[in-house]
Amino acid sequence: MEEDAEAEPQSYAWESELQRTWDAVEETADGSLRSAAAGSWRPGEKPSVQVGVRRGVMRAVLLVLDCSRHAAEHDVEMKPSRLSVMCDAASDFAGRFFEQNPVSTLAVLVTRREKAEALTQLSCNVRQHQQALRALAACAIGDASLQNALELARDTLSSVASFVSREVPPLVCLPSSRDAGDLLASLSSIAASRVRCSVISLLAEVCIYRRIARETGGEYGVALSQPHLRELLLRLLPPRPDKLAPTNSLVKVGFPSRVPPGGAPALTYSAGSSKPEVRADGGFACPQCGVLHAELPTECPVCALKLLSATDLSKTYHHLFPLPLFKQQLGPPAALCFGCGEALPAAARNAAPATHGFTCGACGAAFCEHCDALLHESLHACPSCEGP
Amino acid sequence: MRFQVEELEVQFPYPRIYPEQYAYMVELKRSLDARGHSMLEMPTGTGKTITLLSLITSYQRAHPAMGKLLYCTRTIPEMEKVLEELKVLEAHRDELFGQDRKDKLFAVGLTSRRNLRVPPKALSPQPSALGPALSPRPVGARPCLDCSSAEQVRELCSYYEALEAQGSDAALPAAVYTLEELKELGRGKGWCPYFLARHVISFANVVVYNYQYLLDPKISQLVSRSMQRECVVAHNIDNICIEVMSINFRMPTLEASPDTSETLPTPFLDSVRSPRGGAPPHRYQRLVHGLANSGALNASDELAANPLLPQDILLQAVPGNLRRADSFVLFLKRLVAHLKKRLQTEEVEESSRLALPATPPPAPRRTARLLRASRTSSQSRSTLSLQVTDVSDFNPLLLVGDFATLLATYRQGFCIIIEPYDERSPALPDPLFQFCCNDASIAMKPVFERFQSVLSGALSLLTNDSLVTTGTLSPIDMYPKILGFEPRAVHSFAMSFSRDIILPLVVTRGADQAPLSSKFDLRSEPTTVRNYGKLLLDIAATVPDGVVAFFTSYSYMQQVVREWHALGILKRVLEHKLVFIETTDVLETTMALENFKRACDCGRGAVFLSIARGKVAEGVDFDRHYGRAVLLLGVPFQYTLGRVLRARLEFLRDTCAIDEADFLTFDAIRQAAQCAGRVIRGKTDYGIVVFADKRYNRADKRDKLPGWIRQFITDGSLDPLLRPRLRSLNLSSDLAMHRARQFLRKMAQPATTARSVPSPRPRETWGGPDAPRAITCAQAETVSLDFEQLRRSNAYVASAATATAAITSHPLQATGQQLPDQPADQPERFAVEMDEAEAMEIAV
């Protein structure tokens, strides 16, 4: 990677090992080719976790993609084009987003030809977002307008309930803003409506983007390469400590009961659409008005009740009580991984020198690299001491 | 924090210190101990000011017998910054030693009366940024004219009178006073802040002022006192020395002179003829001796303080025929008439002395003395005439007086050039009379020399002398020659970075491989112009926010911009960024700059097209996002056919043994480095510097760049097979853009994640077993800078081109470079003392 090359500037191309990049290409489900090398990014330091912080676990996230002609330009670090890299990262993000935030909603906006348009509406349907993103990859044209995109996002989010945390992460590849209007004026109105913009730039640091991120309480990042872009996006997955929410308030939610398929056809709402369809494959009945819904979570269009399943709600629990990071274990006191029972490697690949594994701070159990990732990303609990 | 620098306890107000700051302190301390001059170069943004202040004031604390620190700055904001830093330092000392310690620092800033004035309503429109140049000479008769409004001319300024009434009892508690605080104080106590500042500089430990106060003979006599000094002077000091000693005038100036000299005498004559009538007698006394000055000073102090004129000349009584105002005016008239006659010439004249006609002066033997005295006289007389009108009316006359004095005082190092027309428009007669100083050491010499004499005289008051020159000066060994002194220590400090914040790119070819150069035979070629345009376009498309492009001259910029417009390049640049252009008009340029910054702030991005020797290059900072890239279109050589430059080159060749080409390159690269320095204003800043000329690729040019740029140049000529992405020399424009893109992405990462990317080149940081204890205790990076090693490593970069075998070996083994030679002892070239007969010869 970049650092490795910088560290040994004197090494020649022919001195390094032959890299058969063509062997690493794999075909994806939709028939496009993808380089397996893209996954070899060594992640940076994990962000430290804060325990006991209030977080807005109900989120409405509008992902903004820059589909200007700059997104179609040739870029050595982002192959085949910035746009396809962006779309890949975005659909990956969408998939993981709903795993971690089951009670949140997502929408995708695009900006091209100096305009902004909604690619998908706010919904929690992963497939819908991913399909739209896959179709987008070849439509980069015209100039982007961040101002229009931000204003559209603000308008869309204005209908969202006040306890939902509103986030707009734009992915931009502009070296300069070409908006006709005053971006700073829209910025202040967006900051006033409590929208957090975490801007991710694909080119270079632009002062105005950094300012937007700072003034709306978001983060600013510049992607070095394709894996780094993914890492930046994934940093947005866990809900942030919510400093912007005004006060505590009770939210009325319904836990619908499952209606098994095979009954009489009934009007069923699917997520994200306001028109019911007649179906006979069952669904979830709203406890307040009894209307069927195909998917959860959703909001009942009839009685405007937020509908959740109890397991979804409990899944968000780990954000409030996260598992603390395990310490890197330098010596070899434990030979076997507590999780999988395999021998801990002498020196893990790509890790800091002489890393042999990770130990839980509470009970001291040792884990290998993969188990550590599993515990922190999926299980959110230590199997040894059973506690975060 | 407190630490020891070679047994000297230093208080430093910040919790960490950079290795180069520590190294700087050590050098400074050594040169203070050795009581010699030294030259220390350090890049901008490394915290020179606080380092210097904290070391010298700590030294003052340890050695109370040591005299004052005179800190010279260029502008008022700089002065304020220094005083603010001092305040921080003093606050830190209060923390360490308690509030009521005895040895508090007493620091004041001194600037012109316009900037130090109590009533906010002003007669003058703008406070001048360069303080002293236009400040009217204070005299006893009307000390504070501009404090009072026009109607109240006859009344005396109450502030001045209040201060005068206090006399020497007007004492201030020791503290650091910024200009604002001084004004506040003056308002509170009813004292004139300007005269208060002038009064207290004799007690202060630290005095901050513009360095024209020190160098300009016309002003320095007013403020310079017999005090010991450390002074800090910024870059381009030789040019300033030359500027203050050179005088140019055109026909209109001379036309104005006789008029003023006619209006001059009436009030003056009145007051002289009836001394008891108008002015009070003690003021009259001062005037007659030509020593008019503020009441707090006595006459002998003033005399001793004049750095320019030898004492015996000053002590001579003013010639009798000048003492009378009418004859003095007659004399000036004759001089002006002669100059006018000389100006009416059709041909270019160049001479080292002015042949004055023998006829007009009544007695030739007296001319020299007349001329010398004319300055003092004209000054006192015109200041007296303030009673009737503004001093600015008499500027032409003062100019002639100054000219006459300089002419009579110095025999070498000056030349006179009369150009009957401007080179650009030969048809228009626009005669210009240039009295040029070729020798920068003339202005500096009194400064150096006084220290010497002070030392040999061993006065107890004055214990030390040291001249520390900092700023961006390179190559450092040229300066002692030009300024005519022998430094005890010459050092150039590199900057320590946590990451590579500068990306120098030497672009020698366009994308079509045609060479890029601003050489005379290449620069007008359509290919060159197009490639330069393409380069600018690429940079505008790649680099976010602000970009500054420097052309070599106004005429070249005009030509290129015209052609770019025709080629449609400008229009395409406008797609990415707005374009602003520097013009000769200051107001226009200021507006352009303002809008440039607005465009950068709102994200649109902008390109500023500027001139390498223009005002923007001299004093405007493009920090942070205002300047992410600098593009140098060509090498900013001076116009080598200019007569003034030719005369100076000749002088340098004959007297300092400096080769013409060497000096020109030195000057051009210094200017280029100055332009490059516009974008890096601190360690957290980053920027790209594009040197777009094939001549930058040559070792003789490149090695003259300052160390802080050179340390980032990775040498491609060492290793032609080095991958282009890691090379910064001999690039074509597309390769350069590739590197720029990578650099921008890398620099945009938060600085903490860059910890894993320390610079791989070992020559930048030298860890050693003898790392200074002080730094470790301060938890700073324990990197000790060994100067010897550092210097050699820089030399390594230079000499490595020839020593290709040395690439893998240790740089210290590769070269056996010695220290640069100390400049040879220079003969006394400019004898200031002349006997009268010699002086006659020159003047006549």
UniProtKB/TrEMBL annotation, chain A:
One of its GO terms (cellular component) is transcription factor TFIIH holo complex. One of its GO terms (molecular function) is zinc ion binding. Keywords: Metal-binding, Nucleus, Transcription, Transcription regulation, Zinc. Residues 360-380 form the C2H2-type domain. Its main location: nucleus. Gene3D superfamilies: von Willebrand factor, type A domain (3.40.50.410), Zinc/RING finger domain, C3HC4 (zinc finger) (3.30.40.10). Signal peptide: none annotated. It comes from the Eukaryota. InterPro entries: C1-like_sf, Ssl1-like, TFIIH_C1-like_dom, TFIIH_SSL1/p44, vWFA_dom_sf, Znf_C2H2_type, Znf_RING/FYVE/PHD. It is found in: Nucleus. It holds the Pfam family Ssl1. PANTHER family: GENERAL TRANSCRIPTION FACTOR IIH SUBUNIT 2, GENERAL TRANSCRIPTION FACTOR IIH SUBUNIT 2-RELATED. Belongs to the GTF2H2 family. This is General transcription factor IIH subunit.
From TrEMBL, chain B:
Its cofactor is [4Fe-4S] cluster. Residues 7-289 form the Helicase ATP-binding domain. It is found in: Nucleus. It comes from the Eukaryota. Residues 748-771 are annotated as: Disordered. Pfam families: DEAD_2 (PF06733), HBB (PF06777), Helicase_C_2 (PF13307). GO terms for biological process: nucleotide-excision repair; positive regulation of mitotic recombination; transcription by RNA polymerase II. The keyword Chaperone does not apply. Belongs to the helicase family. RAD3/XPD subfamily. It catalyses: ATP + H2O = ADP + phosphate + H(+). It comes from Emiliania huxleyi (strain CCMP1516). One of its GO terms (molecular function) is 4 iron, 4 sulfur cluster binding. PANTHER family: DNA REPAIR DEAD HELICASE RAD3/XP-D SUBFAMILY MEMBER, GENERAL TRANSCRIPTION AND DNA REPAIR FACTOR IIH HELICASE SUBUNIT XPD. This is DNA 5'-3' helicase.
